[in-house]
Amino acid sequence: MAQSLENLYSILPAEVNGWKKAAPPETYDKSNLFDYIDGGAELYISYNFQKLLAVRYRAAGDEEIVIDTFDMGNSYNAYGLFSHGREREDGLTGQGSEYNAGLLTFWKDRFYVSILAYPETEGKKEIVLGLGRKLSQAIPQEGPLPPVINLLPQPDLVPESVRYFHHYIWLNSHFFIANQNILLIDDDTQAVLAKYKTADKPLHMLIALYPDETKAEKAAQSFLKNYLPDARGGMAQLPDGRWTGCRLAGNRLSVVLNAPSREVAVSYLESIGTGRPPGK
Q1: How, if at all, do strands 243-249 and 26-28 pair?
Q2: pTM (predicted TM-score)
Q3: Which of 22, 69, 81, 142: CA 20 to 30 A from 111?
Q4: Contact between residue 28 and residue 2 where contact means Cβ atoms under 8 Å apart
C-alpha cells in the first residue's frame, strides 16, 4: 500500500491499452512549482503544498495522459484544494471526485490527484477512471475532514458549494468581502464558506475557527468595522434589502451573508454546531 508519491509511481502500470508510462517522472516542490504551473501555483502553496509527482503516459503521436499527484501534507488541505474548484461530486473514486471532459480530480487522505486526457474519447475516459481508481486503492486510508465543516447546518445546504480555505483570497473568489484581509484569515485559521437555498436568492454562510479567542474577537471587530459599520447587535440590513450578520462564540466567528430577513439570518447563526435546522 502506498505511503509516498514514489510508491504511487511504482504502483502505476507500465502500459495501459497501448499507452506507455514515460520515465522518469517529474517532481516539484514549493521552490519550483511555478515552473510547472505558471500562474496557478499560488493556490496550491496556500494550501500548504509539499510535493508534486507528474507522470505522463504517451501513445502514438503527441497526445498524453498526465497524472499530477500532490502531497498536501494533510487531509484538510487535500480536501480544501479539491473543494476550491469543484462544481459537483460524482463519487467515482477517492473521498470525493469530479470527472468532466477528460479531466478527473479527486482527493484521498493527504493526496490530491488530477488526471487529464484531452481531447476526451471514450477510450481515454476509461483509462483515466481506471488509473484514478488504482491510485485511490493504493492510498491506504481515508483522512478526516476539517472539523469546521461539521459545524455547517445541513438543511438547504448546496453540497458542492462548500469551500474550505485558510487564505482570504480564495474566500473572495467565491464571495467577495474586501480587498484586504478584514477577517484575519491565515494559515492558523480553519474557514468554510457554503451556499444555502432560500425562496429567492441564496444566502451564504461563513464559519471561521481561529487559534484562540483573542484573534477571533479581533476578527469580529474588524469585520464589523469594515463591512458592517452600521450594524446593531451584529446585524445590518444592506441597501438591497438583504441582511448580513455575525456572531462570536469562543474562538469561532460565524457570518451569514445576504439572508432574506433578519429572522432568517439569526436562525442560521443560532443553528451552527447544534445539529438543529435553522428556525427550530
Answers
A1: unpaired
A2: 0.94
A3: 22
A4: no
Please answer whether residues 245 and 232 qualify as being in contact, where contact means their C-beta atoms are separated by less than 8 angstroms. Answer: no
Does one domain contain both 37 and 110?
yes
pLDDT value of position 157 = 95
Helix or strand run (H / E) with residue 223: helix 213-227
CB within 8 Å of 44: residues ≥ 6 apart: 33, 37, 52, 70, 72, 81
The predicted pLDDT at position 280 comes to 58
1 pLDDT exceeds 60? no
DSSP 8-class letter at 157:
B
- For residue 31, the enclosing domain spans 5-138
What's 96's domain CATH number? 3.40.1000
Is 277 within the bounds of a domain? Answer: no
Per-residue pLDDT reduced to its tens digit, 83-142? 999 999 899 999 999 999 999 999 999 999 999 999 999 999 999 999 999 999 999 899
> 193: Cβ–Cβ under 8 A, 6 or more apart, which residues?
161, 162, 163, 165, 171, 174, 175, 204, 205, 206
Question: 217 φ, ψ to 5°?
Answer: -65, -40
Which of 118, 138, 158 is where one domain is finished?
A: 138
Q: How many CB atoms lie within 10 A of CB 199?
A: 6
Q: Are 117 and 130 in contact (CB under 8 A)?
A: no
Model confidence at 274: pLDDT above 80? no
Q: Are 133 and 12 found together in one domain?
A: yes
User: What sign for the dihedral angle of Cα 150, 153, 155, 161?
Assistant: negative
